Fold:
Amino acid sequence: MTTALYTHELCTRHRMGDWHPESPARLASILDYLHASGLLSELVRHEAPAVEREALLRAHPEHYLASLERLQPQEGLAWADPDTALNVFTLEAAARAAGAVTAAVRAVMDGAHANAFCAVRPPGHHAERAQAMGFCFYNNVAVGVHAALAAGVERVAVVDFDVHHGNGTVDIFMEDPRVLVCSSFQHPFYPYRMFDIDRPHIVNTPLDEGCGGVEFRRRVEAAWLKRLDVHAPQIVFVSAGFDAHARDPLGGLELHEPDFRWVTELIADVAARHANGRIVSVLEGGYDLDALARSVDAHLQVLRESDRA
Ligand SMILES: [Zn+2]
Structure:
């Protein structure tokens, strides 16, 4: 069994201005580093297809998709919120980002690959049912979760270790106990919403600014492990943001590559116990180009190792 990598060149054409931290250079940095480390040659690389509209409509209402299509400009930028802009390629890029996840779900469910990582942008976990925000348009992970549910999966887990809270994913699955959402995040911090929702299937783990690896591991293990084992997910999704890294210019947490390796091992162990190892991991944040690339490499080393188990 193998680890798949889904990406697409169109994901680099979405641009929000030269100053914007959510830049195409993020994907280039990741792929260059994976090539140099040798890990890229151990992954099976796939071109991400464009997502089917039916798949998007499970996570987002038609009026929202239509409003994004009206907003997308022919040239220049159109702003969906003060941080989040569309250029002429944005919705094509977003369609590949979400399509990467649905294709990864199919491949992992079919047993074609043990697990998969989607190196895509724009990211997705801030996108609510009908609200683009925080650099996100389509909630890529939520679209993938719905694809798994539509394929007959009964219990899903989403693990989100981005420095920002996954408000969009919580919004979309707040009323759906089939989907356990575990999210760690700096608090108080952007996006300042949905973080206080407390339900058996919504596990919010706020972390103080400056929180380092020891505290992160203690809090995550205490809050997530039992919930994940009780839920017994048949597939595990990861909102893999690496902006909790100490070097990240946006986040204020103090994690390092071994912490991302540790949390990935925790996720892989849960997936091995309950989900036949099925993991679909999707890139969210991470804005220091070097720290991002090294952290993705550490994350993928664990996925690659666990697929041999
Ligand atoms: Zn983030």
Q: What stands out?
A: The first helix runs from residue 25 to 37.
